[in-house]
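BUG: 3D viewer hangs when loading the predicted structure for this chain

Environment: internal workstation, default settings.
Expected: structure renders.
Actual: progress bar stalls at 90%.

Input used:
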Amino acid sequence: MTANPPMTTPDEPPLAATPDDTAGAWRADQLRRIISGVGAGRGRESGWHAGFGTLLALAVLVGVLVGVATDLLQAYLDSPWLSLVNSASPWLAPAFAVGIGARRYWHAAVAGLVTCVVELIAYDVTAHLRGIAVGSGITAFWALCGVIGGPTFGVAGKLWRSARGPVRGLGLAVLASAFLGEAAIAYGLYLGYYSSAALFTVIGIVLIAALGRRGRQHVRSCLWMLVTLPAAVVGELLLHLVYSQTF
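Structure tokens produced before the viewer hung:
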């Protein structure tokens, strides 16, 4: 019995990669770059970072201040400034701010959640002390928004500070898109409060211009907004649907 002949001879060229192999390698490389971009900078970033306990204490402090101020200012502000204490995006922005100080992304997510939950509790307690009844349904609605939005915006704050590679600019795009989406849908389309819509549009643009200076994120943020702005619009439409069907 003779040995099986080799499948190729030394003179034969190597097999070329198929299109599927090339596409698979490209996708794997992109995923690897995204993961490395999220994790980049850990241990090398300059500036202040809070330990987890300190970050949670900061989240509670910010939540109390924002919740109390929101309730009190609602009695004194007129349009369009009233919209700043009666809207989703300004309520979520503090979670973004707290997330900036986080050392790790999961720290930022937890701190963002705590910030929004404490905001809601502080708001309800302040309203109760002022003799204003807050319905359980509206509290549950905003609690659900906080459970989803708090961690999202906490991580967005950390991304703005730390992310490298393909995800650079995503955090800022999330924050700016929240204001722009609310301007277009809540205030422009449904309520017709055009002065509030203009105010939120200006805030979104100013956020891109000012915060985009860190790491030259302007272009990347605008590119990411091709994804985040439609997502914000869909989110606003869903919020309006749930709110209109419930209250």
